Amino acid sequence: MALAGMAQAQTAPAAAPAQDVAPPQDAADTPPPSAADIVVTGSRITTSGFNAPTPTTVIGEEQIANNAQPNVFNTIAQLPSLQGSTGAATGTFSTSSGQQGLSSFSLRGLGTIRTLTLFDGQRVVGANVTGVPDISMFPQLLVKRVDVVTGGASASYGSDAVGGVVNFITDTRFEGFKGNILGSITKYGDDETALVQGAYGASTLDGRLHFVVSGEYDHEGGVDAGDFGTDLAGSRDWYRATTLFNTGQTDNGLPQYVYGDYAQPYQYARYGLINNGPLQGIAFDANGAPYQFQYGSNGQPLGNGRVSNCFAGNSFCQGGDLSGAPGSGASLKSSLERINGYTRIGYDFADDNEAYVTVNIAQVKTNNQPSPGYGRANLTVQCDNAFLPQSIRDQCAAAGITSFNFGSANAQLPDPQVYTDRKQYRFVGGLKGQFGLGGTDWNYDAYYEHGITISDIRVRDIVLQNRYVAAADAITVDGAIVCRDPVARANGCAPMNIFGNFAPSLSALAYVAPHENGPFQHTKLTQDVVSANFSGEPVELWAGPLAVAFGGEYRREFYRVNADPYGAGVSDISPNDEDYPADPLLNSELGSNWAAGNYKNGRGKYEVYEGFLEINLPLFDSQGAGRANLNAAGRGTHYSTSGTVWAWKVGGTWDTPIDGVRLRAVTSRDVRAPNLSELFAAPTVTSVPNFNDPFQGQAVQIFQNTIGNPDLQPEIARNTEIGIVLARPSWAPGLSLSFDYYDIKLSGVVSSLSAQQIVQFCFEGNQAFCGGFSLDNANQQLNYVNVQPFNLASWKTSGFDIEASYQWQQPLGLPGSLTLRALGTHIRKFIVEAGIDGVDPVDQAGANNGNTPDWKWLATQTYDSGWFTLTVQERWFSDGTFGNQYVVCQTNCPTSTANHPTINFNKMKGAFYMDVGATYKITDQVSIYGKVDNLFDKDPVASPQTNTGLDINPALYDTLGRIYRAGVRFNF
């Protein structure tokens, strides 16, 4: 098996045997294209003999099948040039993002929003307000191949193609019946997967009417959350709560950040901890009995909210009682269920001319647990609380206090769950074919697409914070325990015992965390596209025909989102609303009442008008000089939100006189317009515990308000690629090699600083950052930091791709063939400049807590006897750092700053994974197969942060462990 072909545009006869790689060919030997030809191209021009200067990696249906994945996304995402793609194992720690289970590609580490994904060369409606599609909604059994254009392609394909293009090509003329049944499970007995796929195709009316239909059902059980502390799902034992401990000291000659395991938050415990005042350090066990909390680091409570020998910067000790740490309590992979149905009907109304209609209806459901319980570190508890043990009341009296500060992970509460339900309806009607004009044959492709995505997100068992405060404040009235606040009592408040593992009563739970009527978000996205493209060879020149492609496109994107009133905030909550009644304790106008999942209402739209022209000019064609061409394209794009912007590219190829050697180069100007979310998103509020307040030198809880910016402008990129290809020379006809250098400069990047950076830069004296936040430590409910995107940043990245393959017929006298392949990407630099005074550039190349390792390789070895296939695959990426902004030191450290914080250790190991699979043909129509992914059960390396999250990087590392797969395929 192989995952990619040489980066080369080409034509190949369909009658040729299926190859793992679509091999480069000598254009002089390429027959004229016909309806039966496979055309692989990084451009809109698909005429005979054209070789695109933009590298294009090809993945065939045999490679997709041999990789034995329930989602074709998993196969494509293994390519080294794809960095930072998202899937079911990413985003599981999040409550509010809405991207759980969303399978989207990211080329060159530039993000999913800068990779254009097409289906049969056509746009696809987004599955999220960011505009990115969900690959799991594609009809996967009909995919013939996937073309990955690894370079800027905006001039040819349109906006968003800054990192490149991923184009799924389906078999529109399939006839017969085929199917696939796959089952898989991890070594740890979870993520049980069942996949059933089927497709049927037929033709009638003398072959003029073509009908294709496919359907599939996929159930992936996911990997459940672990428990508090360090207990992961199953018997996984690699989690150690690794953290970058923040000493809070920046100029004492020692590193500010200290790398270590077993981080213990000292502001709360599993069932409650008094974290301030004279009683600081008293915790409560499951039975509600008080005990002296065991701090790590030999820490002792100081009575002022801090602990000696521990880390004040993010309120951690090391070791001790970890039972309240929530990091391991997040899902490792979302469970996923998807249903997909696809139909295509085409009618040849004339030779080489077809009218067609396609319908694709899909649904994807996911579920994940972001974190257990409800972590709260700033609750004020009165000493006369009805549930408080008498011994603590006595200590209150002896200390002369009437209240104390209290923190709890609230493990007695149900764990929150996030459920997403995405439905997509996509309809396309089109015409494609050929016609003659002026003695020239012209190709055309015109279509109209209407896509709708309905997305519903519901969060269950999330706390309404003010109601939690009211329910926790219990007193005794006439012998009955009730909520202290009479207004809260009048609105249904039922008291709750927060001192121990006492499950709340049904009435208390319904009041504090209404199960069915929790946070929700209903989103509707629509996309309308009208597109027409033409190509032909109108003029015969001295070295061959002049090829021309031109066309235009209109696109309209729209979204509307409605959220629950407790999260979104409305001024007229009805007292008679049974689901969300008016409550004086809640902020009805501003919303943001939930501990997480405070979705907001919003809407927005934009329209795009585009026109492009592309030419391929043959320069020379002779035996002595070889063959060369010049390719150029220009595109004008008008956005209703930001005006007109231009994209272009200029490049060429040269088949040199040296046997099999081809040179290619291209430079381009590419664009990406801000998406609906960046432009029009209503404020999204996220709760951030353990936020470092540098003004007070301690961790606090804040609300991060993320808002859109309608004044954003398009991003502009300059992309240059230079490469050399050795394409099956006569002296080694089974050998193919390529080397391509790339350099990308992206300006006006839509980005924002993190909440921590904003506060830190203000603390360091930059007044420009001081107006967008409030830190009121007396009432942490009022703490907020505003985060908004701007066109200020610039990114610069460069590196090179290497591909090599060799096919050996009858190796060692054995029947069949042996194919060896390797693909590698090296990132020389990935410099991110914030574009803000006082913020230094950061080189993210080799930062393995992100998605841009220095080196990434994929290698495969495939033996195919005709009836038996054995495949071995290796995946590897290099060692790196936590972040290249850090200054490593042990003693005599310079002053630690937000730009260059000091740290004692900054190394993050890479990883090596091996996969082994085999297929056996029982008959010509039926095959059985099996595969083991991550054969050696390689554990992920810790990706430490400065908070208590699950410290892994699922975008880069395998977090599930060894997976066993088996199935059967049939084709009649």
From TrEMBL:
Species: Sphingobium naphthae
Region (Disordered): 1-37
Name of the protein this chain belongs to: TonB-dependent receptor
Keyword Transferase attributed: no
Gene3D superfamilies hit by this protein: TonB-dependent receptor, beta-barrel domain, TonB-dependent receptor, plug domain
Domain TonB-dependent receptor plug: from-to ranges: 51-165
PANTHER family noted in UniProt: PTHR47234, SECRETIN_TONB SHORT N-TERMINAL DOMAIN-CONTAINING PROTEIN (PTHR47234:SF3)
UniProt KW keywords: Cell outer membrane, Membrane, Receptor, Signal, TonB box, Transmembrane, Transmembrane beta strand, Transport
TonB-dependent receptor-like beta-barrel domain segment(s): 439-935
